[in-house]
Specification:
By secondary structure, the chain is an alpha/beta fold. The chain contains 18 helices and nine strands. It folds into two domains: 7-100, Arc Repressor Mutant, subunit A; 120-362, 3-Layer(aba) Sandwich (Rossmann fold). InterPro entries: Methyltranfer_dom, SAM-binding_MTase, SAM-dependent_MTases_sf, WH-like_DNA-bd_sf, WH_DNA-bd_sf, WHD_Rv2258c.
């Protein structure tokens, strides 16, 4: 009865439309790989700079192998990313496409995000093991993830830090200029802190991250820049509720970091402890809902749940953590903040940033 009912309800048109979507997904996945290669090799930048060119000229300009460059160009030609003139044998990156594919695009370079696809693919076998056995894949298994995250935050956070993010807290720029104590948790390679330390020499900045590789990189950059008001520590924040010293900081920040933590409740409680009574906690995290049905129209919903499965959730579970996932959402975030002791929580959006929410939090 059930099988007959299903057959009676079967729609060939719906099945065909779904098959077309799957084929399109295969093509778009391939485009992501070619886009990542184009970004990492600088091919998009070179093609935009030199204008129409054949594969030999582009390869010479980029210092790359012509045969590989030609095949890359052909892949993106049939994908309608690059245009090809068969009469002259030249390829062109339209200005409208270059606006979203080159480093000159600054905050709008979508090619940066395409890198996540090949990076995540490197741990597919380990993730499948987790499907069978549980557990997670630790941070150190992800090659280049901190490098890509640094580029990602360079577009979403660094480009907006002074003109859009800091002004969300009235008087914060003035306090930073006068000199305050700042802590950034989950700082990664520390690019945001380095900018702040350079801009506000009277303030003191501390960055903490689980990854030794990221901390080593951040320290080297700070030393090279001669910043004596900037310090980095490698630390597991699992017990930050017990480790945090009371009333140490005027400003605490986390940029896209809390949902990755093994014990986010402990981290938030530690932040509440470490923050001075007149201090501010600035939390940037992914915009979305805790309920999947509310994310059906999210512009990058599939990407975010994939990032969660392949990184954010699994690195937390690898530490025996809660595995909140990328789209832990406003509802869960607000509940955990109140559980940690915060009572004043304002959530902001930036007009140019569909990806993130910015929480301004006080005791």
């Amino acid at each position: 009865m059930c099988l007959n009912h299903q057959l009676a309800q079967f729609s060939s048109a719906k099945a065909d439309a779904f098959a077309e979507r799957l084929v399109d997904s295969l093509n778009q996945g391939a485009v992501c790989l070619m886009t990542s290669i184009g970004h990492r090799t600088g091919l998009f930048d070179r093609l935009a700079e030199i204008g129409p060119a054949d594969s030999a000229r582009l390869a010479r300009s980029a210092g790359l192998n012509e045969r590989y460059v030609r095949e890359w160009l052909n892949a993106l030609t049939v994908a309608a990313v690059v245009e090809y003139d068969p009469h002259n044998g030249v390829y062109t990156l339209p200005a409208e496409h270059a606006a979203y594919l080159t480093r000159a695009a600054a905050a709008d370079n979508i090619a940066v995000f395409a890198q996540y696809i090949p990076v995540l693919a490197t741990v597919e076998d380990a993730i499948i093991d987790c499907f069978h056995e549980g557990g997670g894949v630790p941070y150190e298994r992800f090659d280049r993830f901190h490098e890509v995250m640094a580029e990602d935050s360079g577009q979403s956070v660094l480009s907006s830090l002074f003109d859009h993010i800091l002004p969300l807290v009235p008087g914060l720029k003035e306090r930073l200029a006068a000199g305050i104590e700042v802590l950034d948790l989950g700082c990664g390679r520390g690019r945001a802190l380095q900018l702040l330390a350079q801009h506000y020499p009277r303030s003191q900045f501390v960055g903490i991250d689980l990854s030794q590789e990221a901390i080593d990189y951040a320290r080297a950059q700070a030393e090279q820049s001669g910043l004596d008001n900037l310090h980095f520590l490698q630390q597991d924040l699992t017990h930050f509720d017990e480790d945090a010293l009371a009333d140490q900081f005027d400003l605490i920040t986390t940029f896209d970091a809390i949902h990755d933590q093994a014990k986010p409740r402990a981290v938030l409680k530690g932040i509440h402890t470490a923050l001075r009574d007149d201090g501010v906690y600035l939390m940037q995290d992914i915009h979305g809902s805790s309920r999947v049905e509310n994310n059906l129209d999210h512009p990058i919903g599939p990407l975010l749940y994939t990032l969660s499965t392949m990184h954010c959730m699994t690195v937390s579970l690898a530490q025996g953590g809660d595995g909140l996932g990328t789209l832990w959402g406003r509802e869960t975030a607000s509940a955990l903040l109140r559980e940690a002791g915060f009572r004043d929580i304002d959530i902001h959006r930036l007009a140019h940033d569909f990806q993130n929410d910015y929480y301004i939090i006080r005791k």
